[in-house]
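Query structure, 385 C-alpha cells:
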C-alpha cells in the first residue's frame, strides 16, 4: 500500500524546500515583460517575465511589484522617458515567493534603469548612424548640429496656411489653436488639422501616414506643425523611429516640432525645426508674421521718406534756378551798373548791328539816353571787369 499525501501536505513540503533554499536570496535577472497590468490606486503591478532564445520562449514566470517597490516603475518612466509596457527588456532584482494557493511568482524589488537607458541610447545611436549613412545628401552632421534637407528649407516671409498633426481633443491641439487663432496681433491663419494618435506602439506609422496625406494634398501649405501635449511625458519612442525620421528629414515643406519635453531631444526634433511645446511653435509662427509686418511698415516709411526727400531736392534745385534767372534779369544787370543798348526798342547783342549815324538808346538804371553813333572803334584786349 503506497503512502498518500494530501495536496496541501505536498505543497507545504514544496514551500518548506523553497524556503530552505531561497529564503533571503535575491537575484538579478534579465527578461522581457508582458501582460503588464498596473493599478496606480493601490500601487501594484502584475506582469509576466519571459525569456527567449532564437525567438522561442524558454522560460516564463509571473511577477509582482508591490506597493513598496511600485516607485521603481515611476522612476523607470521618468528617467528613461518611456512607458513601462509590454515588450520592454529589463534587468531587475527579484526574490522568489511561493504561495500554497497561488503558486510561484517573483517579487520585483528593483529595476536596473542604467541598463535600460544604455539599451535605448544604443538603439538611438544606431538609428542616427543609419540615417547619416543611408541619406548622405540630405542628412549631415556639422559640429554637432544636424543639417537636413527639411530644416534648411527657406521659410516663407508670411505664414498663412498651416498643416497641424496632433491628437484629437489633446492639450497640444488646444494650446496650438489658442495661440494661433486668437493671437494678440489679430493675424489670420488657415489651420488644417490632421488628427491621429501621437503616442503608443504604432504612433510613428500613424504620423507617417498623415505626412503622406499632406504631401498628396492639393493644398499649398506654408509650414507643418507636429505637436503633442497632455499625454504621457515618457513615451517619446515613436519620434525615434527610422522611417518617420527619414521622411521628416526629406519632406519638402518646413516641419516644426513641439512634442513637449524640455530635457531630451527626439531624433525627429533633430531632423526638423524644434520648439519645446505646441504653444512655442504657434508663437514662432505669429512672431514670424509680426516681423514681416514690421518690415512692410519700415519699407513703407522708407519709401515715403525717399519720395519726400526727392521732392525737397527738386524744390531746392528750382529755387537755385530761380536765383540764377533773377541774377540774369535786365533789372539785376542795370542795378549792378551795366547798361543795355537798344535800336528801335530791340536789344543789341552784336556790335556789328550798330552802324555810324544810327540812333541808339542807352538804358541805365534810372534813365535812358538817346544818342546818334558818330564813330566806332575796336577795344584793345583788357582784363575783365
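Result returned for the query:
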Amino acid at each position: 500500500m503506497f503512502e498518500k499525501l494530501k495536496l496541501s501536505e505536498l505543497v507545504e513540503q514544496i514551500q518548506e524546500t523553497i524556503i530552505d533554499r531561497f529564503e533571503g536570496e535575491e537575484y538579478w535577472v534579465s527578461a522581457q515583460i508582458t501582460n503588464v497590468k498596473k493599478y496606480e490606486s493601490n500601487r501594484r503591478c502584475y506582469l509576466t517575465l519571459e525569456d527567449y532564445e532564437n525567438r522561442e520562449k524558454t522560460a516564463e514566470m509571473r511577477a509582482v511589484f508591490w506597493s513598496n517597490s511600485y516607485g521603481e516603475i515611476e522612476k523607470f518612466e521618468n528617467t528613461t522617458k518611456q512607458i513601462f509596457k509590454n515588450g520592454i527588456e529589463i534587468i531587475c532584482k527579484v526574490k522568489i515567493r511561493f504561495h500554497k494557493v497561488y503558486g510561484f511568482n517573483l517579487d520585483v524589488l528593483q529595476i536596473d534603469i542604467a541598463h535600460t537607458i544604455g539599451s535605448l541610447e544604443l538603439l538611438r545611436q544606431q538609428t542616427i548612424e543609419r540615417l547619416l549613412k543611408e541619406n548622405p545628401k540630405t542628412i549631415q552632421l556639422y559640429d554637432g548640429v544636424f543639417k537636413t534637407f527639411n530644416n534648411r528649407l527657406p521659410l516663407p516671409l508670411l505664414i498663412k496656411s498651416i498643416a497641424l498633426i496632433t491628437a484629437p481633443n489633446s492639450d497640444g491641439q488646444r494650446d496650438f489653436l489658442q495661440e494661433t487663432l486668437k493671437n494678440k496681433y489679430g493675424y489670420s491663419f488657415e489651420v488644417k488639422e490632421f488628427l491621429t494618435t501621437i503616442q503608443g506602439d504604432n504612433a510613428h506609422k500613424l504620423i507617417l501616414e498623415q505626412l503622406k496625406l499632406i504631401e498628396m494634398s492639393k493644398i499649398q501649405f506654408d509650414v507643418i506643425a507636429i505637436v503633442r501635449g497632455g499625454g504621457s511625458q515618457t513615451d517619446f519612442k515613436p519620434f525615434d523611429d527610422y522611417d518617420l525620421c527619414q521622411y521628416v528629414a526629406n519632406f519638402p515643406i518646413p516641419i516644426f516640432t513641439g512634442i513637449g519635453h524640455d530635457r531630451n531631444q527626439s531624433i525627429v526634433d533633430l531632423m526638423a525645426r524644434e520648439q519645446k511645446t505646441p504653444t512655442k511653435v504657434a508663437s514662432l509662427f505669429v512672431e514670424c508674421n509680426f516681423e514681416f509686418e514690421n518690415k512692410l511698415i519700415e519699407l513703407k516709411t522708407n519709401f515715403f521718406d525717399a519720395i519726400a526727400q526727392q521732392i525737397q531736392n527738386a524744390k531746392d534745385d528750382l529755387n537755385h534756378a530761380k536765383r540764377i534767372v533773377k541774377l540774369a534779369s535786365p533789372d539785376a544787370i542795370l542795378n549792378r551798373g551795366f547798361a543795355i543798348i537798344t535800336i528801335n526798342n530791340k536789344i543789341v547783342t552784336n556790335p556789328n548791328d550798330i552802324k555810324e549815324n544810327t540812333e541808339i538808346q542807352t538804358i541805365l538804371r534810372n534813365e535812358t539816353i538817346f544818342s546818334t553813333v558818330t564813330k566806332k572803334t575796336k577795344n584793345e584786349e583788357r582784363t575783365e571787369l
